[in-house]
Amino acid sequence: MLCGGLLGSSLTFAPVQAALVELDQNCTLYTAESTCSGSPKCLWHRPFGGPATEATCVFSDRVDCSSHSSSVAMCSSSHEQCVWLPSSSWCTHQAGYSGLHLLLLYGTLLFGAALGSLIAYPLLQSYGMRRSLLVCGYLSVVACAGVHASTVTDTPFILMCARGLLGVACGIASCAGPLFLSKRSPPSYQRIAGVLFHLGTTTAGVVCGFVGLVVAPRTFDSPTGMNMDARKEALATVPLVYAVALVVVGHLMPTSPGEDVDGAVVDYSHEIDDEYPQGADDAIFFSSTAFVPITDLSASASGSGVYGSLASPVGSAASQVGTTIVRSPLGSRNSPLLAATSRSHRTSITAQLPPRYLFDHARPVLVALLLAAGDQLTGFGAVMFVAPTITTTAVDASPLTGIFFLQVWCFAASVVSLLLVLRANMRNLFSVGLAFISVGCGVVAASSWQGMLADDERAARRQPIGTALFIGGYEMGVGSNFYPLSIAAQPGTIRTIAASFTMSLRFLLHTSVVALFPQATMNIFPTTTSSDLVGVQRGNGATSSAQLGLCITFAFFAAVAASCGLLVLKALPRLSA
């Protein structure tokens, strides 16, 4: 829960921080000269020859975007600082982070998380889970201190560096946390242990969204009442609390024997459904088609009793296919003799395997790519990028309120996933979740197409429905089962490095979607302007060209989700959570 909380609070920090910065830099909100003069981008303007009561706070560049509110196209083409607000049908001056700053705020964390996931395997091998979690905690504390320093000094460079370091810590936590749960959880809790990391992520998202809602300023006529630096410091405290708690728990955590050994995690393969019957004398191995039980055969031709032949799931000796693999003479998959078989001895046996054995080595990579693509290449980063504004428009509330409602929906869906995982297996839940994602992306694509043709307000109302379907499918089926599947669907001998590789792929795809989604949307047609990029990233200001880009992009996400759902059913064994 703490590892997931660190990741969740770090991810949710970005939209909440962006909303607070927008409030700080939105000059139209200030009603007093003292507060207006305190913002570097604002100017207290008094009309020439007019009374002092007519003075207002305006942007220092003196760009009047409100005069271009007749249409979305006119607003977008008037000035690069003008954006369209669909909730009020009004053209307004851009306030807060630019599109590039938003990309850096998200991208530095995600790219750092990809690096952290990549180094998680050698770190776990060298120091073990307990000390790896301690390293993660200390890195997080240093990174959070950097975030606080950037707020005090108002230095974006320090903020981006701190976010990158925090991402490295989150990447390590994303690997070490689920592996620790799978290793230490009692058998009776194995079905829900893998989902707890994701539940911790959504819980921290709710906490971070609630803190942002609480610290948001209510009045804009007093410098003391604003004090935006203190409000940003309070928000940055949320991931710091998780980092300190991780350090404390890491010091109190006992060390168990064998936790530093590669693949020393709970073997999920014994939870295969009755599709592959197994008895007391069965040993489960990873094959080119699935996890297959090895029947109780007599000793091989060598007479050593260590080798056996791959047989059909029903155990017919006549169905042997002649693939030689390691076999425990004592039968049980927990046999001490099998556990004591040296890695070099197992390696020498591979020389007797047919050429298809090479596919066995490629299969873990393909499984990792399939899981990562189903988790991120289906548009999660893009949806979470624009979902806060879509939610804000749907509930007609402030951006921070929209973010909070969005995080509450994510948390509620992840709680439901705990109940679902007790009655279904991981593979099916993952596939059904992808089906919901495909439908949700299709709804968003259709509404964007309708909005492009007729500028129909009803089309804008359908976008929250598609977003809700997407997030519900992701939180209930895909995101909650991704972490345990990344461990369970890999062979035990390489489970740690395979989980590390899968997690790194996930964050790399997340980074790619966040970076390329607005660019792909903007460049569908050359008539789309740079203000559309900001509009797409902020969930508003999209012209018809950008609407077509949204339609094509989400249609692509829907196709990827449907394809991954079918491939998951075909390629993965039926594993319980």
TrEMBL record:
Residues passing through the membrane, by range: 103-121, 133-151, 157-181, 193-214, 234-253, 365-390, 402-422, 429-453, 465-486, 507-526, 546-569
Position of the signal peptide: 1-18
GO MF term (any one): carbohydrate transmembrane transporter activity
Protein's UniProt name: Sugar transporter, putative
Entries under SUPFAM superfamilies matching the protein: MFS general substrate transporter (SSF103473)
Family the UniProt entry places it in: Belongs to the major facilitator superfamily. Sugar transporter (TC 2.A.1.1) family.
Domain of life: Eukaryota
Recorded GO CC terms: membrane
Keywords: Membrane, Signal, Sugar transport, Transmembrane, Transmembrane helix, Transport
Location in or out of the cell: Membrane
Keyword tRNA processing belongs to the record: no
